[in-house]
Amino acid sequence: MRLFPWLLLHPNIPKPLHGLAPRVILGDSWWREQKEKARRKSDNYCQACGISPRQAKYHQWLETHECYSIYANGKVEFKTCVALCHSCHNFIHDGRMQMMVKSGEFSEEKYFDILDHGNKILSDWWGQNIKVKDKFNGVVHPKFINKANSKNSLLKWEYWEDDDCDWDDYHLILYGQRYESKFEDYRHWLEHYEGL
Length: 196
Ligand SMILES: [Zn+2]
Ligand SMILES: [Zn+2]
Description:
The structure is a single chain. By secondary structure, the chain is α+β, with helices and mostly antiparallel strands. The protein has helices at 22-26, 28-41, 86-92, 94-102, 108-126, 142-150, 186-194, and strands at residues 63-70, 75-84, 171-174, 177-180. Helix 3 packs across helix 5. The chain is globular. Residues 65-66, 89, 92-93 line the site of one zinc ion.
């Protein structure tokens, strides 16, 4: 079984592209096919930590994560899907977890436990104790991103800060097709996701 712990460094999807997941655009039959393919490819183990879902602490099944290359100019390109356990998958989507902790849909204890899970796997990969994501801070340091980039040729992550590009610069590339943000600006995003 080949493991790819660096997958846990997958950056959060930039806010302008929320609501534009390939599974939403391409629909259920595409998504079912991808889930099946990802599970087969991973031999039914989590591709990041290697756990069999039967032994996993939370859900006893594998989840599917859509992987992207992310560029500092706002281009976000869908590349492939991977099978991950619930903890590894949530570690990647810690921005979503943070929102759910704040709204009370997700317990703080579970959130901290999932951060510990991911940080531990990444510490083994890095060769010393590191805290890649901390409580309510999911920004991944560029030195970790750089090592992940050097370990694979499929996904490329350029480091970016929120103000490196304009809201309108962000776009999704999915099988060669370009998709623009569903939200005019950050205010509309907030309105939609946080009811503000
Ligand atoms: Zn895992
Ligand atoms: Zn995901």
